[in-house]
Amino acid sequence: MMTTITNIQDLRALAKKRIPRAIFDYADRGSYDERTISANRADLAALALRQRVMVDVSDRTLATTMVGEDVALPVAIAPTGLTGLFHGNGEICGARAAQAFGVPFTLSTMSICSIEDVAAATSKPFWFQLYVMRDREFSKSLVERAIAAKCSALVLTLDLQIQGQRHRDLKNGLSVPPRLTLANAIDIATKPAWAMRVLMGKRRSFGNLDGFVKGADSLTTLSAWTAQQFDPSLSWKDIEWVRKIWPGKLILKGILDVGDARAAAATGADAVVVSNHGGRQLDGAISSIKALPRVVDAIGHQTEILFDGGVQSGQDVLKALALGARGCLIGKSFLYGLAAMGEAGVTKTLEILARELDVSMALTGTRHVRDVTGAVLDR
User: Which residues are catalytic?
Assistant: First the structure.
């Protein structure tokens, strides 16, 4: 067991040891040749910070707001599918850790624990992520359930109307529907603690779908239904439809193109997330950090800009803020912590990001996250 955890990569290494390879790779890998997932990290790393000295930074704060909500750190936990397979009741663990730390948690449509499960386990509103599916009545019912759960924002994902192929998932048997292989069975047998936690969790299938698909009593059946439900006919008119049934804050996730950014802002969305789905959709698309300043220049005066794509350190957060983001979403980093140590691991992830951001702000002569500008970058 690793005795000293100092960064997100330590949590990643621990997660890799503790959960089956198929589950780990689902979070860790990207689509096709994985050029975009690699670019997300490489382009963030290529940005240099500007060291400043002899500046009084004794009074610092990481507190700010995201979509009008007070946050202790400019970070929100991104929606991630199958979270409850990384650790038993994984969505509940993530939501509780986020609530205690003072940052938003986003529950995915494709979660294992349901909207109601998470709402019952928490005392503060969380965000809900929606896929608009072919079955509009079902999509509407999800929105109604999010309203009933008092979710404070709806995150509408725009970039998954058709699923990009993830070679590693297919080879591992984590296809849609899942395929059990001998290698998977052997791998799971070597992870008894993980298996016990998942088996003892509230659910082992898609909680938000369970009970809606008649006769569906397994992850395989629900996954097959979901694969048929992603809708390639989605258009900006569907945003209007969502607006009519959702009364709260609306966040549009999955913007890289400036033209799409302008169209998103025109809907009146409260925030737009610059994201390439973590390099898991269109391989060969530009990195999120390269797209960020273009989107900020185009619509930053109209709506709040959030950033998603490769954030694995507090310095990554600082760089995104410097290029105009109000805050960042974390997916992989969250799942590494969850898989490694459960709820405590999610807390550890947030603590690491907060500490690194705090130190990096101080060494760039910055007191407040709201004061971060492009001046902290050496360019």
Answer: 277
